[in-house]
UniProtKB/TrEMBL annotation:
Pfam families named in the record: DUF2855
Protein name: NADPH:quinone reductase-like Zn-dependent oxidoreductase
């Protein structure tokens, strides 16, 4: 198999490594046919150690394998009830293949899929260990690989924010997670303000998901907002976050940090207003599943997705293949060279 390994201390530097796979009893080998590459994957690498994202796909000392979302097909199986040809959606390594240890019930994969019960994954968040039987209920596989993880996060954010302030400020408004949240929040009647790079402001406006779009340089003008306001910072830009806190002061009721893609911009010191809380989607999703039940969660998510999916006319899917294309694309992603219209999907 071919695997992309990145330097933990310089995540933009990756190499393609070829290695042999030997399946143990109970394991299954899958060929990864399509995975998405977005800023979210950069956050996985930035938090590889503290959030244990490096632990999903172990790599040699000093290196890490970045987790990605997508689809894979079983090519060999030594696990009872998992058959060659079956296809699953889930959390894979940035690689051509993956080895998992499926938990089957009565020697069968359940109608929903399976959990990877490999020992090294036992203590990691359950949502990442779940592999779902592939279907097209949420649209094409490219759209699913791009949006299933990000829209589910947007949905969880909206579930958390719905009872809060009626005005939302979303930083890194052009990210797919922010766009999903903006659409859902606007649909319930919230006032949604997007903060973004000057170059992406026109794109954000054209989506129609925002009541107001401001380039980062104008974050200070938020001092005219009446409040109460909640800030949702998608990419962890400490300078922008500080500007919003200063502009709104006590009118800011909540401050959430969703991602750390702006990993090169250090977080500011103590800020006026509520201290930022890191949002960890798996925890909030688990709480909602507890409250609504798994079927209730799925039904609400499906209804929200139906609302958003019809508005994706702006999305341009770009497919790339091979390490020679994936390595530079990863480097560009880490440097923040992302066209927000683009949905990048890849295979090795
Ligand atoms: N906490 C959680 O559980 C969780 C779950 C899912 C996603 N997330 C986070 O949500 C964020 C958005 O992810 P996504 O996959 O939706 O993003 P995406 O669609 O790939 O977003 C691209 C946008 O992010 C901004 N950006 C990303 N990296 C940058 C960099 N290095 N320098 C400058 N700008 C950068 C730019 O927006 P602007 O020009 O608008 O700034 C860019 O247009 C990520 O940080 C991700 O980790 C967190």
């Amino acid at each position: 198999m071919i695997e992309i390994q990145v330097r933990r201390d310089a995540i933009g530097d990756g190499v393609a490594v070829e290695r042999e796979v030997v399946l143990a009893e109970g394991e299954t080998l899958l060929a990864i046919e399509l995975f998405s590459m977005t800023a979210n994957n950069v956050t996985y690498a930035v938090h590889g150690v503290d959030f244990q994202y490096w632990n999903f796909w172990p790599a040699p000392e000093g290196r890490g394998v970045v987790p990605v979302w997508g689809f894979a097909r079983v090519v060999e199986s030594r696990a009872d009830g998992v058959e060659v040809g079956q296809r699953f959606y889930g959390y894979w390594p940035m690689a051509s293949h993956a080895v998992v240890r499926p938990r089957t019930l009565l020697g069968k994969v359940s109608a929903r899929g399976f959990d990877d019960v490999s020992e090294h994954r036992a203590k990691l968040a359950a949502v990442y260990n779940r592999y779902v039987t592939a279907d097209d209920a949420m649209g094409s596989e490219a759209v699913q690989a791009l949006f299933r993880p990000l829209f589910t996060t947007a949905f969880a954010l909206e579930a958390m924010l719905a009872d809060g302030p009626g005005t939302l400020v979303l930083a890194s408004a052009s990210s797919k997670t922010a766009l999903g949240l903006a659409a859902l929040a606007k649909a319930r009647g919230a006032r949604v303000i997007g903060l973004t790079s000057a170059a992406n402001a026109g794109f954000c406006e054209a989506t129609g998901y925002f009541d107001l779009v401001l380039p980062y340089e104008q974050s200070g003008t938020l001092d005219g907002e009446a409040g109460p306001v909640a800030l949702v910072d998608m990419a962890g830009n400490g300078v922008v976050r500080a500007a919003v806190h200063r502009a709104l002061g006590v009118r800011l009721e909540a401050s959430h940090v969703v991602g750390d893609t702006h990993w090169d911009v250090l977080a500011a010191d103590l800020l006026p207003g509520p201290q930022p809380q890191f949002f960890f989607a798996p925890t909030v999703i688990a709480e909602r599943v507890q409250e609504w039940g798994p079927a209730g969660f799925e039904a609400r998510l499906a209804a929200a997705w139906a609302l958003f999916a019809g508005s994706l006319g702006w999305l341009a899917v770009r497919e790339i293949a091979g390490a020679e294309a994936v390595l530079p694309a990863w480097g560009a992603l880490v440097r923040g060279e992302i066209d927000p219209r683009q949905g990048l999907v890849a295979r090795l």
